[in-house]
Design goal:
The complex is a heterodimer of chains A (317) and B (607). Chain A is an alpha/beta fold and 317 residues long. Chain A is 32% helix and 15% strand. Chain A folds into two domains: 253 residues, Rossmann fold (3-Layer(aba) Sandwich); 35 residues, no CATH class. Chain A has eleven helices and ten strands. In chain A, the strands form two sheets. Chain A has an eight-stranded mixed β-sheet, sandwiched between helices. Chain A has a two-stranded antiparallel sheet with strand order 5-6. The two termini of chain A are 16 Å apart. Chain B has 607 residues and is an alpha/beta fold. Chain B folds into three domains: 208 residues, 3-Layer(aba) Sandwich (Pyruvate-ferredoxin Oxidoreductase, domain 3), CATH 3.40.920.10; 183 residues, 3-Layer(aba) Sandwich (Rossmann fold), CATH 3.40.50; 113 residues, Rossmann fold (3-Layer(aba) Sandwich), CATH 3.40.50.920. Helices cover 35% and strands 21% of the residues of chain B. Chain B has 19 helices and 24 strands. Classes of the chains: A alpha/beta (317), B alpha/beta (607). At the A-B interface, strand 2, helix 4, helix 6, helix 10 and helix 11 of A face helix 1, strand 10, helix 7, helix 9 and helix 10 of B. Strand 2 of chain A pairs parallel with strand 18 of chain B.
Chain lengths: 317, 607
C-alpha cells in the first residue's frame, strides 16, 4: 500500500485566534439595519440606477429578516457586478459571464442558503449567454437580477447585447445595427420558471419583484432597467412617469402561467410592461438531485461511507 | 514469455507444461468483438490469483467499430509496463494478423481465426502459427444461429487451456459479468467458454503454466486508472463535482455521477467546460473541496476560472486526463504534453500545484493527496494523469478503506472574527469560511478575483499586490519544502540518470533493470510532485554524468521536452537532456534504451 504523504489533517478554520462564540438564537436576533448590511461605499457614478437596486436589496434583507450568513451574493464582472463588495454578507465576485454556474455550485451544494446573483446585460446575455439558458432550463434555485443598462459601462461605452439599433457607441460610432436581445423572451424561451421586469425608478415595484422572486422555488429572473447616466443617459425615460414616460403594469388579466401570453407580452412596444410575466413552478434541479440522493441513500441505510465504497471494491476483485 | 525450465513431472517423464513466469498476450480484432472483455477477464483473473497484471489498449476514435487491440501482461513477479513484445498474438481478422504480427517476439505464437485469416507463408518461419476456426466453432457451439457473437469467450476458453488458467475462477468471473442478465446469455457464454477450453489443439501447442506467484499481502482489486482516481476522490470525501464530457475524462465523471448520490453527493453535467469549473469552484466555496476535470481542449477552456481560484485561493481539484494535442489532436492516444498548461496555463502570476500519478494504484492515492493539499494550502491542485493510465487495468492491493476514507463535512459553527486573506496568518495560508457561518464581528468576507485586502475587498495598492502575490507564492514554496524528497531507483551515483514524471514510471524502471542487468550504471527518478518541485533533485542530478528526461511530448524548439525545459530552467544544468516521442503510444522499454544509447553515442556539444 502506498503511504499518503499528505494524510487528512484538521485545519484551522480561521486565520485569527479561535475564540468561542456564544450561541445566538434566531429569536434573540434583531432584524439587520441598513448600516449592518452595507459594506464598502459603492463605486458607481453619482446618479447610477444601480444605487436603487442595492438600496432595495438592503430593504429586502431587512424586511425579510434575513441574517448575514443566510444569504450569499454572487456577481460576475461589470459595473453592477461590484455588488457583493457593497453588501455585508458572504459574497463572491467571480469572473465575467460565469456568475450563474458559480452560484449554481453554491446553491446545489448548500440548499440552506439563498443565493442572489447580480449582474449586467453583458454578463447575462453576451459572454455568459450560454449559462443563462442552461441555469434557467435546469431551474437551479436562485434569484438573478440583471441590471440592464443597454451599454457596456465599466469599459466606457461599447455596444451591449441589449443596445437598441442605432445606438452610438465607441464600437458603433455610426449607430448599432445588430438586433438586440429581448431578455424577457430569452428567459421565457430558456425555461426560466419566474420572469419579471422592473425599473430602478420605481423602488416599490423593484422590492415587490425581489420579494416575489425570493419566494419562488426555482430560478427566478428579474430584468431591471438600470440607467447608466454616464454612457446612456435617458435610456429609460420612456418608462419613467417623472420624465414624461409611462409605467405600464402587466395587465391584470394576464395569465402568468401561460408561456405564449408571456412571450407575446415581451413583444410589446417600448417601454413595454412591468411586473411578473411568467411564473410557473416546476421541480428544481435542487429538488431532483435531493430525491436522487434520498433514493440512493435509502439503499445504503445504516452504512458508513467507507462501507459503501468497500462494497464497490468487493465487486472489483 | 520467459520460459523458466522444462520442469520434469514428479512421476518422471516430460512435463505436459512449459513453465513461464510471465506472458504478454495481444488480442487484436475490431472494437465491437468484445476483445476488451477477454482482456478484462484475464486481468481480473490475474488479480484474483495474486499475480501482477498490466494492460494496454487502443480504441479507435470512431464512434463504432474499427480495429482495436488489448494487450495483457501477466506475471508472477513485478510487472511495470505492458510489455514491449508479445508472446502470443490472438488475431481475429486478416488485418489484425497483418498489422500486429510484428508486435510478436521472434518465435512467438500467433493464434488466429482460420475462418478469417489466411496465414502468410513468409511468416511461418518466424512465428509459430496455430489456426483455429474460432468463428465457425463458436457458431457450432451455440447452436448455429449463424452469428459468431461469443467468439471472444470461445477464444478466452482457448487461452485458458493454453495457459492452464484457473477455470473455476474464470467461470465465476463470467458468471459475475453475465449472470445478472438473461440466463440464456450466461448459458451461451459458458457454452462458448467450454467449447474453446475443450477444443483439441493436439500437438499444435504445448500448454504453458505460470510459476506460482509470490503471495502478496491482502486481496487485490482490479480496475483502470480512471476508476481508481474517481474512487480516490470519493474516499477523500469529495461530494460535489461538475464536468463536461470529453475523452478520456468522461469515465471519471460518469462514475462520480453514478456513485456520489450514494454518499449524499452530486455530480453535475454542465453546458460547457467553463461552467464546469465555475460550478465546481462554487461548490468548493460552499465548504467542501469539489472536483472538475477534462482532457486537453477542455483544460484550455478552464484556465480563466482556474486563475480566479488561484487569486481567490479556493481549494479545488482539477483532473486532466492528457491525450494527444494540440486542439482535438489524438483523442484516444497518450501524450504528456499538457504539462506546460498545467503548470503555467493562465494569465498573470498564478502559482498552483500539479501532481502526476505514476500508475493505476497511484491514481487512487494521488486523488486523496490532491484533496488534502488543496485543503491544507487553500489552492487548486491539478492531477495530471493520461490516456494510458486512464484506460489500462492493473491489479493492486486493496486499500484499507476504513482508515483511509475522509469526512469533509463543512463546519458552520460561528466564529468571532474572520479575515480570509490575513497577511499575518500563522502558517501563511488563507482560510475560507463557508457561507452559512455566522461571524460575530459582523464583518463578512468576499472571495474575489480582483486584487484584494485581507477581507477580500478590492485594492489597487501596489504594496498590497506585492504582499498578496508573495503570499500566494510562498505558501506553495512551503508546500515544496514539505514534499517528500525524490528517491532514485538504483544507486545514487552512476553514468546515466533518467528522470520522468507520471506514467513513465513503469517503463523507465524496467529500462533501468535491463541496463543494470547488462552492467550499465543507470538509475532513474520518477517524480509525482511536478509543480512545485520537491527539494533534493539537484543533489541527485550531481551524482550522474548524463541526465535524460524521459517524457511523451515534443522536443520543442530547443531540443528538450516540457519537463526537461523546466528542469533546465530550475537547475541551470546543461547536462540535462531530453528523450521524447509523440507517437501516441506508451514507452516501450526498448525505445528508452535505444534513445539513451543514441544520445550517448552523439558527439559532445550536440544536443
Amino acid at each position: 500500500m502506498s503511504a499518503l504523504s499528505f494524510p487528512f489533517a484538521t485545519l484551522p478554520r480561521t486565520t485569527g485566534t479561535a475564540a468561542e462564540v456564544p450561541p445566538l438564537a434566531d429569536t434573540d436576533r434583531k432584524p439587520l439595519t441598513k448600516k449592518e448590511i452595507s459594506a464598502d461605499h459603492p463605486t458607481w457614478c453619482p446618479g447610477c440606477g444601480d444605487f436603487s437596486v442595492l438600496a432595495l436589496y438592503f430593504k429586502l434583507i431587512e424586511r425579510r429578516k434575513l441574517w448575514h450568513e443566510k444569504v450569499t451574493t454572487v456577481a460576475g464582472i461589470g459595473c453592477s457586478s461590484r455588488f457583493p463588495y457593497f453588501v455585508q454578507a458572504h459574497g463572491a465576485h467571480f469572473i465575467h459571464g460565469r456568475a450563474l454556474p458559480f452560484a449554481s455550485g453554491v446553491s446545489l451544494s448548500r440548499p440552506d442558503i439563498h443565493v442572489f446573483v447580480f449582474g449586467g446585460d453583458g454578463d447575462a446575455f453576451s459572454i455568459g449567454g450560454n449559462h443563462f439558458s442552461h441555469t434557467a432550463r435546469k431551474n437551479i434555485k436562485m434569484t438573478y437580477v440583471v441590471m440592464d443598462n443597454f451599454v457596456y459601462g465599466l469599459t466606457k461605452k461599447q455596444t451591449s447585447p441589449t443596445s437598441p439599433i442605432g445606438f452610438k457607441s465607441k464600437t458603433d460610432i455610426w449607430g448599432s445595427t445588430d438586433r438586440p436581445i429581448n431578455p424577457m423572451k430569452q428567459a421565457i424561451a430558456a425555461g426560466a420558471t419566474f420572469v419579471a421586469r422592473t425599473t430602478h425608478t420605481n423602488p416599490n415595484h423593484v422590492l415587490e419583484m425581489m420579494e416575489a422572486a425570493m419566494d419562488h422555488d426555482g430560478f427566478s429572473y428579474i430584468e431591471c432597467l438600470s440607467e447608466c447616466v454616464e454612457f446612456y443617459a435617458g435610456a429609460f425615460d420612456a418608462a419613467n412617469p417623472r420624465k414624461g414616460g409611462k409605467f405600464d403594469l402587466v395587465p391584470k388579466e394576464h395569465d402568468v402561467t401561460d408561456e405564449y401570453a408571456a412571450y407575446k407580452l415581451a413583444d410589446a412596444a417600448w417601454p413595454g410592461h412591468f411586473g411578473i410575466f411568467y411564473r410557473n413552478p416546476r421541480a428544481t434541479k435542487n429538488a431532483n438531485e435531493a430525491k436522487l440522493i434520498a433514493d440512493h441513500r435509502a439503499k445504503v441505510q445504516g452504512m458508513s461511507d467507507w462501507q459503501i465504497l468497500q462494497k464497490s471494491f468487493d465487486r472489483m476483485k | 514469455m520467459s520460459a523458466v525450465a522444462e520442469v520434469p513431472a514428479s512421476a518422471g517423464g516430460p512435463s505436459k507444461f512449459t513453465k513461464i513466469n510471465e506472458a504478454v498476450i495481444r488480442i487484436a480484432g475490431n472494437s465491437q468483438d468484445g476483445i476488451q472483455a477477454i482482456g478484462g477477464f484475464l486481468a481480473r483473473l490475474a488479480g484474483r490469483s495474486e499475480q501482477e497484471v498490466m494492460t494496454f489498449m487502443t480504441i479507435p476514435s470512431t464512434i463504432s467499430g474499427g480495429p482495436s487491440i488489448f494487450q495483457v501482461r501477466i506475471g508472477s513477479g513485478e510487472v511495470l509496463s505492458a510489455g514491449d513484445e508479445a508472446d502470443m498474438l490472438l488475431a481475429f481478422y486478416q488485418h489484425s494478423y497483418e498489422d500486429h504480427i510484428h508486435s510478436l517476439k521472434l518465435g512467438g505464437v500467433v493464434l488466429y481465426d482460420s475462418d478469417h485469416v489466411t496465414p502468410k507463408p513468409e511468416w511461418s518461419e518466424r512465428y509459430r502459427h496455430v489456426g483455429v476456426a474460432i468463428s465457425g466453432k463458436t457458431v457450432e457451439a451455440i447452436g448455429g444461429t449463424g452469428r459468431d457473437k461469443g467468439k471472444n469467450i470461445f477464444a478466452l476458453g482457448l487461452l485458458a487451456r493454453i495457459y492452464d488458467l484457473d477455470v473455476p475462477k474464470l467461470k465465476k468471473l463470467i458468471d459475475e459479468r453475465f449472470g445478472g442478465k438473461d440466463t440464456a446469455i450466461l448459458q451461451n457464454a459458458i457454452t462458448c467458454f467450454e467449447a474453446g477450453y475443450n477444443h483439441q489443439l493436439q500437438d499444435l501447442l504445448k500448454p504453458y503454466q505460470f510459476q506460482h506467484a509470490e503471495i502478496r499481502g491482502g486481496h487485490q482489486v482490479v480496475m483502470n486508472g480512471n476508476e481508481a482516481l474517481a474512487f480516490g476522490l470519493i474516499a477523500a470525501g469529495v461530494r460535489f463535482g461538475a464536468g463536461y464530457p470529453i475523452t478520456p475524462w468522461s469515465d471519471i465523471m460518469e462514475l462520480l455521477r453514478r456513485e456520489l448520490p450514494k454518499y449524499g453527493g452530486m455530480f453535475v453535467q454542465c453546458e460547457d467546460e467553463i461552467a464546469s469549473i465555475s460550478m465546481a469552484i462554487g461548490g468548493s466555496y460552499g465548504g467542501r473541496v469539489a472536483v472538475t476535470g477534462s482532457s486537453g481542449p477542455g483544460i484550455s477552456l478552464k484556465t480563466e476560472a482556474l486563475g480566479w481560484a488561484i487569486m481567490a485561493e479556493m481549494p479545488l481539484v482539477v483532473v486532466d486526463v492528457q491525450r494527444g494535442g494540440p486542439s482535438t489532436g489524438m483523442p484516444t492516444n497518450i501524450e504528456q504534453s499538457d504539462l506546460n498548461i498545467a503548470c503555467f496555463g493562465g494569465h498573470g502570476d498564478s502559482p498552483r500545484v500539479v501532481i502526476a500519478p505514476s500508475g493505476v494504484e497511484d491514481c487512487f492515492y494521488t486523488a486523496i493527496e490532491a484533496v488534502n493539499i488543496a485543503r491544507k494550502y487553500s489552492t487548486p491542485v491539478i492531477i495530471l494523469t493520461d490516456q494510458g493510465i486512464a484506460t489500462r487495468i492493473e491489479a493492486f492491493v486493496e486499500p484499507d478503506l476504513k482508515n483511509i476514507c475522509q469526512d469533509l463535512t463543512p463546519d458552520l459553527t460561528p466564529v468571532a472574527d474572520h479575515k480570509p486573506y490575513d497577511l499575518k496568518a500563522a502558517d501563511g495560508v488563507t482560510r475560507h469560511l463557508p457561507p452559512g457561518t455566522r461571524i460575530a464581528s459582523g464583518k463578512y468576507p468576499v472571495v474575489t478575483g480582483l486584487e484584494h485586502d485581507e477581507l477580500g475587498h478590492p485594492s489597487g495598492s501596489p504594496k498590497l499586490h506585492m504582499a498578496m502575490t508573495a503570499k500566494r507564492r510562498n505558501k506553495l514554496k512551503k508546500l515544496a519544502a514539505e514534499l517528500p524528497a525524490p528517491q532514485t531507483y538504483g544507486p545514487n551515483e552512476g553514468q546515466v540518470l533518467l528522470i520522468g514524471w507520471g506514467s513513465t514510471h513503469g517503463p523507465m524502471r524496467e529500462a533501468v533493470d535491463r541496463f543494470r542487468g547488462l552492467g550499465d550504471a543507470v538509475s532513474c527518478v520518477s517524480l509525482k510532485y511536478v509543480h512545485p518541485l520537491p527539494n533534493g533533485l539537484d543533489e541527485i542530478i550531481k551524482g550522474f554524468r548524463h541526465v535524460f528526461v524521459v517524457e511523451l511530448n515534443d522536443e520543442g524548439y530547443y531540443g528538450y521536452g516540457q519537463f526537461g525545459a523546466i528542469l533546465r530552467a530550475r537547475y541551470c544544468d546543461p547536462k540535462i537532456k531530453g528523450i521524447t516521442k509523440v507517437d501516441g503510444l506508451t514507452w516501450k522499454v526498448k525505445e528508452i534504451i535505444d534513445s539513451v544509447r543514441a544520445q550517448l553515442s552523439q558527439p559532445a556539444g550536440k544536443a
